[in-house]
Amino acid sequence: MTDHSQDVKLSLWKNDKRTTATQPILKGGKPQVIAGQEYWVSAWINAPKDNPEVASKIEKMIDVLAQMQGTYPIINVSLSPAESQGYAQAQSTGGGVGADPFGDEIPFSPIRGLV
After folding, report:
1. In whole angstroms, what is the distance from residue 95 CA to residue 85 CA?
2. Which residue blocks in the chain are alpha helix, DSSP H?
3. Contact at 8 Å (CB) between 7 and 77?
4. Domain ranges of the chain
5. Whole-prediction pTM value?
């Protein structure tokens, strides 16, 4: 069973101090400590440049959510450590695309070594 006590919990609220489109639309309320280092949490909208209406609609939706949520965050996020032995093995051996982190390569595969 996964130990969720190591998870990093993040919460994002509407950035009420936002004055330009380059500033984050969502911000964390306080710095979050990850591996002993403090980080501020910020989020932006990645909308298609050829359709600026998308960003405008998302911003309106965030405004509505902020009014409905009141003092509660709009988004909650949880970061969990990668505990899979296979994942750790692939990372430690330089594995990536084509790596076999679980050691279960199909010996008769016509594309052996690529999966």
Report:
1. 13
2. 53-69, 85-92
3. no
4. 4-79, 85-110
5. 0.59
* Local structure of 4: helix, strand or coil: helix
Angle among Cα 65, 69, 73 to the nearest 5 degrees reads 95
Taking alpha carbons only, the member of 110, 112, 88, 90 closest to residue 100 is 90
Closest CA to 7 of 40, 39, 33: 33
pLDDT digits (tens, 9 = 90+) for 17-66: 999 888 999 999 888 888 888 999 999 988 777 887 888 888 899 999 88
**Residue range 93-103, pLDDT digits in tens:** 555 555 555 56
DSSP state at residue 60: H
